[in-house]
Amino acid sequence: MHALFDQNCNLVGWYDPANSSIWDTQMRWSAFIVDGNAFSTQTEQWLGAFVNATFQDRNGKAALWMPELGSPESGFAPFPPFAPFKPFTPFTPFKPAAPFAPFAPFEPLGGWSQLNFNAWMAQN
Fold this sequence. Notes:
- The structure is a single chain.
- The protein has one helix spanning 117-121; strands at residues 2-5, 11-16, 21-24, 29-34, 37-40, 46-51, 54-56, 62-65.
- It is built from one helix and eight strands.
- The chain has one domain (2-121).
- By secondary structure, it is mainly beta.
- It starts with a strand and ends with a helix.
- The mean pLDDT is 93.
């Protein structure tokens, strides 16, 4: 499990690469990743691209990042992907111990997303 942080270095959730899922801090299954794109588990709407250590919004701006995997990256707005099939709900993992807050990263080229975690999850 990798800790997910917002631009202010607040812990907002966890990324589980074993089942390509995002869990919020209360260990609720929030998003799933298919072919480098994140989708909401509630609405199945596309949330944005997953690039290296960064989950981007629909405009290609860094919204969430994983410091242990690299620096946040922003880019161009990607094309919306086709809607995937929603995977079966994975087993809820044990909640990891809270990590230390990372040092603030340099601003990614192109800037940060204006969306916080809840707004990123609620995109329609």
